[in-house]
Specification:
single chain; 974 residues; seven-stranded mixed beta sheet; 30 strands; binds nicotinamide-adenine-dinucleotide
Length: 974
């Protein structure tokens, strides 16, 4: 068949489907006149649409009529004339007396449920059965999907499992074959620790639950279709299903199907795998071909992590891939049973034309639509003679909110065929035309060249990293010299850095720099002030960029070393490398701009400029918790600004510091410009800080040390010729508030990550969680259940997010705090760890009911300990949050606009995060740093930070000579 014949046939099929769809749509609109009008009202303009979606999103969390009225008012403050009449009157009448709040809530609930029921087929299994019979009588098949909350705990996973089991049992009782009894399952619902990076653990756990469901399904002759979720989980999902299908008794034939997403750029590679797998099976493999439902998520994640966007950015590219894939899968029939799941008439018609051209029997290709979304297509599909299936989500309509919002978004997207377009003749040609791909996309979202985090969920990336982890210990303990002037000093007193993972692993043996050597280092650094100052800013910047490239090229090795030396989990270690690279590139770029001369006001006879000059020898004193990124940031800023540096890494992580030094040296920074002094802060710190020649002290670490440095730096020496600049970034006692309108599904993972990620050893870690009274018990109950699934243990395991604390001393200090917590408050939760781990492994721990003056609420714990505090209302919550000496990070989880506004205004935190974790600032995107006793000055990762390392000079030149002023633009003849 020629391509024009094919297109002609597609047109014929498409036109028939379209005609049938028009008639059905008219009937549906008539039947649901009222809901359709409501939807049309909601979608009238973009602003209103956003408000409606947000309101739908928050509604299920509103517990009282007054909360409902309050949120209607807040979400629709200027649009009350557009509210449906019943609500408008109700809200207007909802006086402070509260008399009409009940009825307003009732009306809202009624509207909400009516709209939800457009897309959610049944509220429970019993009702689902009725639907099954309705459709079955028409010869239409169903696939039932269970809606619900995110699975955050084992209890929730068990609940899902039981619900699936009941559903399979129920369908099993029907007198029908597996082609009619079909259940759709999202694997992430079966495991609270579902993590694409932890492929082995995840597949083991999920397979156990899925196996039991598959056994039951096999016994009851029910088909299980495994849904596909986001891109990162695709490979692990396929692996689970594939592994299961190879087990006895399933290898003899299993009723399991999988999904192929056409919007992924690598969809053809995935199709290759499915075809290869299908060809090895004794029964046909069922593949549901979809476009993909997580486009926004994929784009957002890729942007956040600087990954290439895994999805096509234009609809036409996806359409084209969809057609190509359907052709490939049809060609593989009957080894593959294709289910074409789309509402796009062109794609449907294409697949039908293709099946016809191949002479395929109708029963070999199925067409699927979504309940409530593609209903108007149903009669046309039924008439076509192909099997038709409706994918029907079931569940409590109010709880199915996330699904509802997604469907509404699709339903009203301008590209959605259903509801729009089918009545317009002119659109028909366009709808049935071949997809035309145009150039363009979302554009470059990474102009600053920021480093991308490692996609560990990819097998190849994971293998390389594992290999590096296995390889690096063979070089331990690595010798770390001290570098003074041009010389490496490798002889003298030494100390070891031991791994927090296991004290028997000695990672590095560093020279223990003596006070005399520190003094010598200042002498040497002083000699390089002029040389480095006179190196053009662009040249200095280029060195930093080369150092960034060097670090990036060795990132697996360096991140592996960090896992051992700092006890960081994989992703955190990689993130530290990313941050170091970003700092180097960011300050290089900022310095190029900062060191340009700036003209100020000019007179006819006078030029004025200001420019920046370096301050002088800079001492960098860094902590162990970001052992490459933090010293890299401070050192890069100092060097970019033209200052020689004396770099003193933390004594716990000298090897990480050494690699930073090497990166800078390999990048061409002349020997002598950086002195590298491994050793103990209390021994050499005072020498460096107290020396009258050191101009800047850039310190990041604890409040005690930071304040002591400030104090010492302020004492003037007789020979002092400068005012020392101290840049001190110190600790935190960070608080986040959970409002009654918070989304628990989103809040709980963010809280756990903020409090227990890297065992709480971040200055930004969440330490005080303030929960409003109205939700306190429900929230803490779910938090505690979820905390039990937070992966703690040895960070060599990629699943682990909470590893050991840095050393035994830190562990003893944290243990003392935990004992205090036991004595003063109530232990809400303490995790359990594998037996035999050394004492520096501390399980995630949660307390509440602590007295106001408890040390647990005031002092930085720097371990995996979270204190929960109850607050009557937002005002009290803010008061508690601000009752701290620190002000580093803070957060709020809320969907109430006025409360968010209040927190924005009043919460004292250098970095305030709304509805997201309170850790994880990105260079350039979230400039980082606190105030009060957390520090001060300009923020790290902001262009202003560089100025801290400079002095500003104004240069004025008088050009007036003997009555002549060189006026700009004046002609000499005048
Ligand atoms: P620390 O204060 O014990 O040590 C930090 C550095 O100071 C180390 O290099 C240490 O050797 C040195 N030092 C110790 N005594 C000194 C002295 N008397 N004079 C000069 N230097 C001295 O802190 P740490 O345990 O390495 O790090 C954890 C602390 O750092 C936490 O309080 C954390 O909140 C803070 N921190 C803050 C930020 C931020 O950006 N605000 C970032 C990371 C860590």
């Amino acid at each position: 068949m020629t391509s024009s014949d094919r297109n002609q046939r597609i047109r014929e099929i498409g036109s028939a489907l379209m005609q049938a769809a028009r008639e059905e749509e008219t009937r549906i609109v008539r039947k649901h006149r009222w809901e359709t009008a409501l939807l049309d009202w909601c979608m009238r303009d973009r602003d209103l649409k956003t408000r409606v979606f947000r309101f739908i999103d928050v509604y299920p969390s509103l517990r009282s009529p007054s909360e409902v009225v309050r949120h209607i008012r807040e979400y629709f403050p200027h649009t009350d004339h557009r509210l449906p009449a019943a609500l408008r009157t109700g809200v207007a009448l909802a006086a402070p007396s509260g008399l009409s709040r009940g009825p307003v809530r009732a009306v809202t609930e009624f509207l909400y449920r009516r709209v939800a029921r457009l897309f959610i087929g049944a509220s429970d299994e019993k009702e689902a059965l009725e639907r099954f019979h309705d459709y079955d009588r028409r010869g239409v098949r169903l696939s039932i999907d269970l809606l619900g909350e995110h699975t955050l705990s084992e209890m929730e996973a068990d609940r899902y499992f039981e619900r699936y089991l009941r559903l399979i049992e129920m369908l099993g009782g029907l007198d029908a074959g597996p082609e009619r009894k079909n259940v759709s399952i999202k694997l992430s619902a079966l495991d609270p620790r579902f993590d694409a990076v932890d492929q082995l653990g995840t597949s083991g756990r999920v397979r156990d639950r899925l196996r039991r469901l598959a056994e039951k399904a096999r016994e009851k002759r029910v088909f299980l279709h495994i849904d596909m979720e986001d891109y990162s989980s695709r490979d692990v999902t396929l692996r689970i299903v594939r592994d299961l299908s190879e087990e006895e008794p399933f290898r003899r034939g299993v009723h399991l199907g999988v999904v192929l997403q056409a919007y992924l750029r690598d969809c053809h590679e995935c199709c290759d795998q499915l075809l290869e797998w299908g060809s090895s099976l004794p029964v046909p493999l069922t593949v549901r071909l979809v476009r993909g439902a997580y486009w926004d998520t994929e784009v957002m994640l890729a942007q956040e992590r600087h990954w290439p966007v895994p999805v096509f950015e234009s609809k036409a590219e996806t359409d084209r891939a969809f057609e190509a894939l359907s052709a490939r899968l049809i060609a593989a029939s009957p080894g593959i049973r294709l289910a074409v799941a789309t509402h796009n008439i062109r794609s449907i018609a294409f697949a039908m034309a293709e099946a016809e051209a191949r002479g395929l029997a109708r029963e070999n290709v199925e067409f699927q639509i979504l309940f409530g979304m593609g209903d108007s297509l149903l009669p046309g599909l039924e008439a076509s003679g192909y099997p038709v299936r409706v994918y029907m989500p079931i569940g409590e309509p109010v709880k199915g909110m996330a699904y509802l919002v997604r469907r509404l978004l699709e339903n009203v997207s301008s590209q959605s065929f259903v509801r729009r377009g089918i009545h317009e003749e002119s659109r028909m040609d366009r709808l049935l035309a071949e997809p035309l791909v145009r150039e363009g996309g979302l554009g470059d979202r990474n102009p600053a060249g920021a480093a991308a985090s490692r996609p560990f969920f990819k097998q190849a990336v994971m293998r390389t990293f594992k290999h590096a982890l296995e390889r690096v210990p063979s070089g331990f303990p690595q010798r770390v010299p001290c570098v003074i002037g041009k010389k490496d000093i490798s002889e003298g007193k030494t100390f070891f850095s031991v791994s927090p993972l296991d004290e028997t692993i000695r990672v590095a043996q560093g020279i223990r720099t003596s006070p005399e050597q520190a003094e010598k280092a200042v002498d040497e650094a002083f000699k390089y002030v002029e040389l480095w100052k006179d190196t053009p800013a662009a040249e200095r910047a280029a060195c930093l960029e080369k150092a960034a490239d060097w670090l990036e090229s060795r990132r697996d090795e360096l991140a592996s070393i960090e896992v051992y030396e700092a006890g960081k989990p994989w992703r955190q270690a990689d993130a530290d490398l990313v941050e170091a690279v970003d700092f180097l590139r960011f300050y290089a770029k900022s310095a190029r701009e900062l060191f340009l001369e700036r003209a100020t006001d000019r007179l006819v006879h006078e030029t004025n400029i200001t420019r920046f000059r370096p301050r002088g020898v800079t001492v960098v004193i860094s902590p162990w918790n970001f052992p490459i990124a933090i010293p890299a940031g401070m050192t890069a800023a100092a060097l970019a600004a033209g200052n020689p540096v004396i770099l003193k890494p933390a004594e716990q992580t000298p090897l990480c510091g050494w690699f930073l030094f090497r990166a800078l040296e390999e990048a061409g920074i002349p020997r002598g410009v950086i002195q590298f002094l491994p050793g103990f802060g209390e021994e050499i710190g005072p020498v460096l800080v107290g020396d009258s020649r050191t101009a800047v002290i850039a310190f990041t670490g604890s409040m005690e040390v930071g304040l002591a440095i400030q104090e010492q730096a302020q004492q003037r020496r007789p020979d002092q010729r400068l005012v020392k600049k101290v840049i001190a970034e110190m600790g935190g006692k960070n608080a986040a508030i959970v409002d009654i309108s918070a989304d628990f599904d989103q809040t709980i993972p963010a809280v756990l990550e903020s409090a227990f990620g890297y065992a709480g050893q971040k200055c930004s870690a969440l330490s005080r969680l303030i929960v409003l009274d109205g939700i306190y018990d429900d929230f803490t109950a779910r938090l505690v259940e979820a905390a039990a699934s937070y992966p703690a243990g040895n960070p060599l395991d990629p699943a682990v997010k909470c590893g050991p604390v840095i050393d035994k001393e830190a562990a003893a200090r944290i243990d003392r705090m935990i004992e205090k917590g036991w004595a003063e408050g109530r232990l809400l939760f303490q995790g359990s760890l594998e037996d035999g781990l050394p004492p520096q492994y501390i399980p995630p721990t949660i307390f509440d009911c602590l007295p106001d003056d408890s040390a647990l609420l005031e002092e930085e714990i720097f371990g995996p300990v979270l204190c929960v505090i109850r607050a009557a209302d937002m005002q009290e919550a803010l008061k508690i949050a601000n009752h701290s000496r620190f002000a580093l990070t803070g957060g709020v989880f809320s969907r109430t606009p006025t409360n968010i506004a209040e927190v924005r205004l009043r919460l004292e935190a250098g970095n305030l995060y709304i509805n997201r974790p309170v850790t994880g600032a990105v260079v350039g995107r979230q400039p980082f740093g606190g105030f009060k006793l957390s520090g001060g000055g300009s923020k790290a990762g902001s262009p202003d930070y560089l100025r801290e390392f400079c002095v500003e000079q104004t240069v004025t030149e008088n050009l007036f000579r003997h009555g002549f002023a060189p006026l700009e633009g004046r002609s000499t003849e005048e």
